[in-house]
Amino acid sequence: MQEKDIYILGVESSCDETSFSIVKNGKIEIATATSSQIDIHKEYGGVVPEIASRNHIKNITIVLDECLQKANMKMEDVDAIAITYGPGLIGSLLIGLEAAKTLSFIYNKPLIPVHHIAGHIYANSLVKPLQFPLLAIVVSGGHTELIKMTDHYNFKKLGGTLDDAIGECYDKVARVIDLPYPGGPKIDKLATSGEATYDLPVPLRNDDYNFSFSGLKSAVINLVHNEKQRNREINKEDLAASFQKVAVESIIIKVRKAIKNENLKHIIVAGGVAASSGLREAIYNLAKELNVDVSIPPIKYCTDNAAMIASAGYYAYKDGRIADLYLNSKSTDNLC
Amino acid sequence: MKILYIDTSSSFLYAGIVEDDKVLIEVNNKLESELSKYAIVKISSMFTKLNIDPRDIDKIIVVDGPGSFTGIRIGMTIAKVFAYSLKTKITTINSLEAMAVSNDKASYFVPIIDARRGFVYSAIYDKDMKEIMLPQHIKLNILKEKLLILDDYLIITNDDIEIDGIKTIYKPDILRIVTKYKNKKNINPHVVNPNYLKLTEAEEKQICHD
Question: Domain residues of chain A, as ranges?
Answer without folding.
Answer: 7-123+301-318, 129-296
